[in-house]
């Protein structure tokens, strides 16, 4: 039976996916500035044998709704937001196996400095770090960083292709495997003949220099990607090792997944090397009735205004300026176009409108929650894996940390009883865990490095 993989989806902020729930008396998301909050979360997730903690990030504020940031600031919609990378070392020190998928936007940082930060994290975590490759979707970020506005949707992917080539060369090709000698007697730490500068002069980036870090366990961090427009899927099929897709009707997601795996195969990759995780929100309690009551309790704290501020920015459309019944189309947006396609797929019989969007909100967000007792939730998670060919889930936080402890205490044992969830971690780096032989989801066991069929592998050191 295919093993279900679980990841937590969180962000270094108060309001992440489900807006308003920070007001719930048991919610602890306002403690996001305390390191102990994150260390506790990491320990909790490792107790539940989660593969990873996936940390979202965004640069810029959500100022599309009502033409300004007030609604987002009032409701703490992904602002204030701290740097996700800085949380990782403390959480890594408190855990042994948990992986960390960290979002970093490549539009505003040169590949040379970014490559060093990720290699540093790969060393400090013992090879447990991943990178969610994003290019941003907010004009407010571009303006804050001195530009007039962000590049167009497909141009951002073209820039990302070039960026990947530079970081692959830094991570994979600048230091030979045997460059570091640590020879105390000879006084040679590293052999200068085995360290070389990379030279890149492209339309977006110029770099001349050797990578500043010695080879880390995974070299290239595990690569995540979350764009699923046509252009986004082509990028993911080429580069991603883990793809994060939004929920929606299972047949819609199944088509996305089949397309992704087919594209990967056409590029010479093993489609099973592409792990696909679907974004999900779970509300679970001891029985179906108690879970429904918990959901109703959470719902009382949901913020519709916060959800609209979030949706306006990520879909790139000001819903305050949009008539209730005006159609919403992907062509209007330079933001996350696949989010619009995803919303539309949920109600194929209807034209997507502001009214439809608001009616579809749940728990202050656009994800339709899976609500029930342990057996009901396990049935649904297993149906997703079966019908949509996904490898697992990225579980959004609702009321934290109980949204994660509930899954760990109630759903994980149920899945384990059914043989659908591991009972122990496999040793090794995050990449090795994702391709562990005990994982019957397919793919061949891999080492800590990128598989030979991955484009980054072609950038490895050659004499
Ligand atoms: C489920 C999901 C999660 C995402 N998380 C982030 C994020 O944390 N930060 C970010 O800047 N972009 C994020 N994005 C945006 C994507 O990385 C991508 O830039 C965007 O979806 C535009 O590409 P697309 O139209 O191909 O989907 C996310 C997108 C999706 C669908």
From TrEMBL:
The keyword Flavoprotein applies. FMN binds at residues 57, 103, 153, 157, 228-229. Keywords: Flavoprotein, FMN, Monooxygenase, Oxidoreductase. Pfam families: Bac_luciferase. GO terms for molecular function: monooxygenase activity; oxidoreductase activity, acting on paired donors, with incorporation or reduction of molecular oxygen. Residues 426-463 are annotated as: Disordered. The keyword Flavoprotein applies. InterPro entries: Diverse_substr_monoxygenases (IPR051260), Luciferase-like_dom (IPR011251), Luciferase-like_sf (IPR036661), NTA_MOA (IPR016215). Transmembrane segments: none annotated. Residues 24-386 form the Luciferase-like domain. Belongs to the NtaA/SnaA/DszA monooxygenase family. PANTHER family: ALKANESULFONATE MONOOXYGENASE-RELATED, C2H2 FINGER DOMAIN TRANSCRIPTION FACTOR (EUROFUNG)-RELATED. This is FMN-dependent oxidoreductase (Nitrilotriacetate monooxygenase family).
């Amino acid at each position: 039976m295919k093993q279900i993989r679980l990841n937590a989806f969180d962000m270094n902020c108060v309001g992440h996916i489900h807006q308003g729930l920070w007001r719930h008396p048991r919610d602890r998301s306002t403690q996001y500035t305390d390191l102990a909050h994150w260390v506790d979360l990491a320990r909790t997730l490792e107790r539940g044998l989660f593969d990873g903690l996936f940390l979202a990030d965004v640069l810029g504020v959500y100022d599309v709704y009502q033409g300004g940031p007030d609604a987002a600031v009032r409701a703490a919609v992904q602002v204030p937001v701290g740097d996700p990378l800085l949380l990782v070392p403390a959480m890594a020190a408190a855990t042994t196996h948990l992986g960390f998928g960290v979002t970093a936007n490549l539009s505003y940082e040169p590949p040379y400095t970014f490559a060093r930060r990720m290699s540093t994290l790969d060393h400090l975590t013992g090879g447990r770090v991943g990178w969610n490759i994003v290019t941003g979707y907010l004009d407010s970020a571009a303006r804050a960083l001195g530009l007039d506005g962000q590049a167009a949707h497909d141009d951002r992917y073209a820039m990302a292709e070039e960026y990947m080539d530079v970081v692959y060369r830094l991570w994979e090709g600048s230091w030979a495997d045997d460059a570091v000698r640590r020879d105390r007697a000879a006084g040679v730490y590293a052999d200068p003949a085995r360290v070389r500068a990379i030279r890149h002069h492209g339309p977006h980036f110029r770099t001349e220099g050797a990578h500043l870090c010695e080879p880390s366990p995974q070299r290239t961090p595990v690569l995540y990607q979350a764009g699923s427009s046509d252009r986004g899927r082509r990028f993911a099929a080429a580069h991603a090792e883990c793809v994060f897709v939004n929920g929606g009707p299972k047949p819609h997601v199944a088509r996305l997944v089949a397309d992704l795996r087919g594209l990967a195969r056409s590029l010479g990759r093993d489609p099973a090397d592409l792990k696909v995780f679907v974004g999900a929100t779970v509300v679970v309690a001891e029985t179906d009735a108690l879970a429904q009551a918990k959901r109703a309790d959470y719902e009382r704290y949901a913020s519709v205004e916060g959800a609209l501020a979030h949706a306006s920015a990520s879909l790139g459309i000001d819903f305050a300026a949009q008539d209730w019944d005006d159609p919403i189309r992907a062509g209007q947006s330079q933001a996350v176009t696949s989010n619009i396609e995803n919303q539309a797929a949920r109600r194929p019989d209807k034209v997507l409108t502001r009214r439809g969007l608001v009616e579809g909100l749940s728990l202050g967000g656009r994800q339709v929650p899976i609500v029930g007792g342990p057996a009901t939730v396990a049935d649904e998670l297993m149906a997703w894996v079966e019908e949509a060919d996904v490898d697992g889930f990225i579980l959004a936080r609702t009321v934290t940390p109980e949204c994660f402890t509930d899954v760990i205490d109630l759903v994980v044992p149920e899945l384990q009883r059914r043989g659908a969830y591991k009972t122990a971690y496999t040793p090794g780096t995050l990449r090795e865990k994702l391709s562990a032989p005990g994982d019957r989801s397919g793919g061949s066991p891999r080492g800590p490095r990128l598989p030979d069929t991955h484009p980054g592998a072609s950038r490895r050191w050659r004499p």
